[in-house]
Amino acid sequence: MSSAVFSTSAAQGRPFVFETENGSEVCPEPFQEQLFTEPRPPQRAADFKDARLASVTPASRLAVRPAPEMVTSGIAEMDALTGGLPRGCLTEICGPASSGRSTLMLSALAAATQRGECCAVVDASDALDPQSVVAAGMELDRLLWVRCGENSVQAESRLEQLLRVTDLLLESGGFGLIALDLGDLSPQSARRIPLATWFRFRRAVEHTSTVLLAMERQSIAGSCSSLLIKLGSLKPSAPENKASPTPTHVQLLTQVEITAELVRSRMDRKPVRSAEITFASKTAWAG
Amino acid sequence: MPFACIFVPNFPVAAVSRAEPELRALALAIYEGKPPMEKVFAVSESATRMGITPGMTKTQAELCSELTLRPRSPLQESGAHAALLDCAQSFSPCVEDAAADTVILDLAGMESLFGSQPEIARNLFRRAAELGLDVNVALALNPDAAVFAARGFSGVTVIPSGKESECLGSLPVKVLFAERMEGEKKEENREESARRLETLERWGVRDLRALAALPEVALSERLGQEGLRWQKLARGAASRTLVPVEAPTIFEEAVELESPIVLLEPLAFLLNRLLEQICARLASRALNTQELRLTLDLESFSSFNPQSKLNNQQLSSPATIENQQSAICSTRPKQFHRTLCLPLPMLDPKLFLKLLQLDLNAYPPGAPILKIHLEARPARPRSAQGGLFLPPSPEPEKLELTLARIAGLVGESRVGALELLDTHRAEGFRMRRFGLGATQESAAKNNQPRQTSEPAEEKCAVAALRRFRPPLRVTVTMDNPELVRVVCPKKKEVQGSVLWKAGPWRNSGDWWEREAWARDEWDIALQNAEGIFLYRLVHDLLGGSWFVEGTYD
């Protein structure tokens, strides 16, 4: 009884090598006569016209998984860096405090609400500022805000609430963007979330049109995230010279520079070279 | 112009059987009255075969071990009567409420909608069964003939036109004198009816055929015009117009419990049954509901049993019962009300049950329950047209359930949509209900091309603030008037030397109110070993304290 052996050469587009279990080659009957008349040329798998082999598609020609739809993050520079935020995937934004994480998150939420989609933000530390939300251009009717825990609740309890609420929102479905705000949780607390949970979240949003966005201080989702953006420390645009003739009381925080680095992207199926950009975000009261 | 009559035989038994369907297969007797003079009022067929008759005392009936006794419940009878009206009004807008167990419909013009007369009759029978009622349905050319046929013949009866006298002839004479609910005249009518029936029986008139065959002149000489009217009814020749009843706008169901329940699981079982009945009645009228009101009658203080369990908590020793009773008397209400407001009109009994369960888990009654009353406000069903290019949105039913579950986790006041208040005070916002109604309206507006003042390529990100709730109290070192250093004892990350600052910006308000506020705000950059961080520093001018309100992120 013969069996087919499909080698890895098939993945590279080379023809198959068809062998029997005892290692001998199969010689079909039409070629038997040639054995006694002239030297038999070396046999190749491509010469065998087996209907069963012809129906097998080589791996190199299999249909590739369609790339996810990308939506704008609301910031042109970020869209140029990453191509946007992928639907049906987990995106991580990590960085220290004052690095621009909340700015990026609110911008993405505002862009989603302006597209007419319902969004949700699961706030582990109850840190969302309503004025910043409005300044970002959010449609308040389309934003669901879940404020986890109260002041006296331990970080672990807030984390548990966040995970359960996220499960409920993903199960409900229909949200264009769900943002998990873990920005104020310490890396030790955030790492308590097992990777299996992130894997479950990723599987829950797969094949949906929901963008799952996680914001934290350090990357904790591992390979479950399809897009990882790392933000650097902020540099406030302000006169550094204390001896400036401009009186102090007229100084105004007008803009904040944000440095973003694309660490990982699984969108193009190619290794991504780390790219870094810097752009400015203006304050709500700046003209 | 045909008329239909729906009659519920043995109405008190039918009302109880509707509330407890498992009693249909048992021998059932309904009693009424004050103890110890309670008497059997109505019995089912199985109980009749066992020898139980109306008028027996409850004690006598209890001797029969296989008999199930239930008290007469006006609540259940009114619920059954309302269901009967709903069933009729789902077929015809002109319905007469003839009695608690009888309704008459005008079927003029209904054949083009519901089919032939036999089909209409069968559909009426089926719809009543869906609402939990075993009824007799009869169709005739005039209302009275339909009523007599429904009361006399079981199942579905259709009297062809012109055959009324022939079909009704076999019915006993007593169908002419069925009880009518006329308030204070009910007793007088009953006595009058008994006298008339006795008169006819003395004459040997047992059925309607015999009454119809009597000579008219002789009958009028002995019984007057009333006798002629009876003869006309017996021949099926009387005609009259219906007095239509106005459709009720409240759908309610109630159940009284013999023994109080303390656990939520049996309460959920009863709520499920009430919800299914209400939803069936709403569906028969093509209506939904947007508000459910639950009222629970709790065990009062006078009948309070100290040994009973309350929500799985056993009471303490008798020595402290008195103190607890006095505390409970002052704080525990007799009735417990909960209102479930839905964002959109819905009609899903399973969803309603789940929402009520989640609500009762969050806000338990706190005492044993004696009576359950559920009321649904009717609303027109929502009409939403789908589109290929509309953005995705959560399903309203799923979203409502999800929000209820999230509220159970984090608290009702901590989930919802933002609403800014008209004030400059910090934290001038409130949480309101997150609903899809407003989002759908704004989605319709968004379909129109939007004209923005600035081009898209010039749009810039707005720096966001992350708030500390509550604000962090800090210690500020100043080198008059410069800010030098900020230290937060509670959060070690928030500390450092002031690298840069902008301010102060004075803000105040509500000076005409009790809660006036005044503060100076700085935007500062703190430098420490970990880096540079931007904060908003606030000096409370009234209290003198310093706070870090948030970080720019």
Name some characteristics of this structure:
heterodimer, A: 287 residues, alpha/beta, Rossmann fold, 2 domains, two-stranded antiparallel ribbon, globular, disordered N terminus, B: 553 residues, Alpha-Beta Plaits, 21 strands, 29% strand
Any overview of this molecule?
The complex is a heterodimer of chains A (287) and B (553). Chain A folds into two domains: 8-61, no CATH class; 70-230, Rossmann fold. In chain A, 41% of the residues are buried. Chain A contains eight helices and eleven strands. In chain A, the strands form two sheets. In chain A, strands 3, 4, 5, 6, 7, 8, 9, 10 and 11 form a nine-stranded mixed beta sheet that branches. The longest helix of chain A has 18 residues, at 155-172. In chain A, helix 6 runs parallel beside helix 8. Residues 1-37 and 239-244 of chain A have low confidence and may be disordered. Chain A is an alpha/beta fold and 287 residues long. Chain B is of the alpha+beta class and 553 residues long. Among the domains of chain B are: 3-26 and 72-235, Alpha-Beta Plaits (2-Layer Sandwich); 409-444, no CATH class; 465-552, no CATH class. In chain B, 33% of the residues lie in helices and 29% in strands. Chain B has 16 helices and 21 strands. Chain B has helices at 11-19, 45-49, 58-62, 74-89, 111-114, 117-130, 143-152, 164-168, 186-202, 208-213, 216-235, 264-284, 321-331, 349-362, 396-410, 436-446, and strands at residues 3-7, 27-32, 39-43, 67-71, 95-99, 102-106, 136-140, 156-158, 251-261, 288-298, 335-346, 369-379, 415-420, 429-432, 461-462, 465-479, 482-487, 495-509, 517-528, 531-540, 546-552. In chain B, the strands form five sheets. In chain B, strands 16-17-18-19-20-21 form a six-stranded antiparallel barrel. Chain B has a five-stranded mixed beta sheet with strand order 5-6-1-7-8, with helices on both faces. Chain B has a four-stranded antiparallel beta sheet with strand order 9-12-10-11. In chain B, helix 14 (349-362) packs parallel to helix 15. Mean pLDDT of chain B is 84; it is low at 180-184, 303-330 and 448-457. Chains A and B meet through helix 4, helix 5, strand 5, helix 6 and strand 9 of A and helix 15, strand 13, helix 16, strand 15 and strand 16 of B. Strand 11 of chain A pairs parallel with strand 15 (461-462) of chain B, so a sheet runs across the interface.
